[in-house]
């Protein structure tokens, strides 16, 4: 039975080559070399048409590839759709998966195609397993250390040297030749067991100094945590003396940290380590210099907040947590106010349409009435870079380019 089917397969290949392939060869390549590749395609199964049979002849290789392609399609049709591999056992560094093949599939695809003989003559393995990480994009890797056994119509593959606490995808590959292979569906994600401290360091994405005494740090989790993370260990060293100026364990989320109370214009070395139940992983380092301290000769350059409340205007000093009343007029309300930083002036309008300018310089302080408006004022805005004052009423906008009387 097997011999008859095998002969039928060879007859089918010969007929195919004698018609389509032979015509193609006669038109596009040397007939003898092309037919040589077609008729001796089995010799290419161990490596490739080019190196195993044709010795770099493109005409021979074309015929050989056509024959191997037909053969691969026959094997694929015979096997049908292969189910994903199943999980048998898992440790912290290895996974054992299984692939079941029925007696009918084995008899029709392995025995009568005489696949067992190809296993003995091929320098490449006929069957191997591929893996890739489930959680991040990467290409399929061929596992060269796996151990494959076959018992009771089931292939059992042991994949070793895996990373602890990591999800993998696996698939079964039947290698026909260098160019043709049959691949089953990928498995569900399979996670190895946790073991050991993290084997990789966090990835620092950003370190900045938004102020002289502050450092902001952002990072991504390590690729291989080897177990569930419980904390991150952050240490900040003086770059000059190597002394630790800050050491702290923080939660795993969010992956950012802000260090306060540092010195301005000082270089620090930042260290971040991931921590799981087994211990600390390797450190990620980053060197940063904080901003220089702002030098202030007197209080005139410190920021102030000008606040209008009913009939009063206050100068609020946020550094001294104090306020000074700049203007007070009973029974009058401030309805619009703006500050000209360049001239140290405050412009405001009361509810009777009177437009004021208040000079709040520390040397000279005075209040002037600039104009009485007959319309209702709704807003004042200052373009202090261009020395312009805008006053908007319900009907029009007034502009004074010299910061004087309209």
Keywords:
406 residues, alpha+beta, five-stranded antiparallel sheet, four-stranded antiparallel sheet, 6 helices, 26 strands, elongated, disordered N terminus, disordered C terminus
Can you describe this structure?
The chain is α+β, with helices and mostly antiparallel strands and 406 residues long. The chain has six helices and 26 strands. The strands form seven sheets. Strands 3, 4, 7, 8 and 9 form a five-stranded antiparallel sheet that branches. A four-stranded antiparallel sheet has the order 1-2-6-5, with no helix packed on it. A hairpin with a 2-residue loop joins β17 and β18. α1 runs antiparallel to α4 (58-79). It is elongated and about 110 Å long. The termini are far apart.
Give the % helix: 10-25%
Question: Beta-strand percentage?
Answer: 35-45%
Shape summary: elongated
The residue-averaged pLDDT reads 78
Q: Rg, please?
A: 41 Å
Biggest sheet: strands, sense, closure?
Answer: 5 strands, antiparallel
Q: Structural class, from helix and strand content?
A: alpha+beta
First-residue to last-residue Cα separation: 112 Å
Number of helices: 6
List the helices and strands and how they pair.
Blueprint: H1 2-28, H2 31-39, H3 49-54, H4 58-79, E1 86-90, E2 95-100, H5 103-111, H6 115-121, E3 127-133, E4 141-142, E5 147-151, E6 154-159, E7 167-175, E8 181-183, E9 190-191, E10 203-211, E11 214-220, E12 229-238, E13 244-250, E14 256-259, E15 267-276, E16 279-289, E17 305-309, E18 312-317, E19 322-328, E20 334-340, E21 345-350, E22 354-360, E23 365-372, E24 377-383, E25 388-393, E26 397-400
Helix pairs in contact: 1-2, 1-4, 2-4
């Amino acid at each position: 039975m097997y011999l008859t089917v095998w002969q039928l397969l060879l007859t089918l290949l010969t007929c195919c080559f004698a018609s389509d392939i032979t015509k193609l060869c006669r038109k596009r390549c040397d007939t003898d070399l092309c037919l040589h590749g077609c008729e001796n395609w089995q010799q290419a199964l161990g490596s490739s048409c080019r190196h195993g049979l044709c010795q770099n002849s493109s005409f021979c290789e074309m015929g050989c590839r056509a024959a191997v392609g037909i053969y691969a399609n026959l094997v694929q049709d015979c096997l049908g759709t292969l189910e994903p591999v199943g999980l048998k056992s898992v440790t912290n560094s290895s996974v054992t998966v299984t692939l079941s093949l029925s007696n009918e599939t084995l008899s029709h695809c392995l025995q009568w195609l005489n696949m067992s003989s190809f296993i003995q003559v091929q320098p490449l393995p006929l069957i191997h397993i591929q893996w890739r990480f489930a959680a991040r994009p990467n290409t399929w890797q061929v596992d060269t250390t796996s151990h494959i056994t076959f018992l009771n119509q089931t292939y059992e593959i042991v994949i070793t040297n895996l990373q602890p606490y990591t999800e993998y995808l696996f698939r079964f590959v039947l290698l026909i030749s260098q160019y043709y292979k049959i691949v089953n569906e990928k498995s569900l994600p399979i996670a190895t067991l946790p073991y050991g401290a993290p084997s990789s360091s966090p990835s620092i994405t950003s370190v900045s100094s938004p102020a002289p005494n502050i450092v902001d740090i952002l990072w991504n989790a390590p690729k291989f945590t080897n177990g569930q993370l419980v904390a991150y260990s952050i240490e900040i060293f003086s770059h000059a003396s190597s002394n630790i100026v800050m050491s702290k364990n923080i939660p795993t989320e969010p992956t950012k940290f802000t260090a306060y109370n540092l010195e301005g214009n000082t270089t620090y070395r930042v260290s971040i380590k991931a921590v799981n139940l087994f211990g600390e992983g390797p450190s990620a380092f980053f060197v940063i210099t904080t901003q220089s301290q702002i030098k202030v000769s007197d209080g005139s350059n410190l920021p102030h907040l000008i606040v209008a409340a009913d009939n009063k205007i206050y100068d609020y000093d946020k550094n001294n947590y104090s306020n000074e009343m700049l203007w007070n007029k009973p029974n009058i309300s401030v309805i619009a106010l703006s500050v000209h930083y360049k001239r140290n002036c405050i412009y405001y309008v009361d509810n009777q349409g009177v437009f004021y300018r208040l000079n709040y310089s520390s040397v000279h302080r005075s209040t002037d009435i600039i104009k009485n408006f007959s319309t209702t004022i709704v807003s004042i805005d200052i373009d202090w870079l261009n020395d312009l004052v805008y006053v908007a009423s319900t009907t029009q906008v007034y502009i004074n380019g010299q910061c004087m009387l309209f």
